[in-house]
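Let us practice reading a record.
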Amino acid sequence: MVKLNFIQALKITRSKKDFIMYDVEGGKLVNFKLTNNISKHRDSFNNKFKLLVDVQNQIKNNLKIEL
């Protein structure tokens, strides 16, 4: 499980993008990018991505997500 702060959760839930590219360190979401174009950002995030709809559904329950 990855902990989110309130601002991160707000940005993710309000987004209309399709994918989230992310970096996790120590159980916390350190860096993320919301995008519709996976191929453009794939190298900078080491192919770590998820469908944003799945992540948004997890956030509705609490401020922790499984990546």
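A brief commentary: The CA atoms of residues 9 and 63 lie 7 Å apart.
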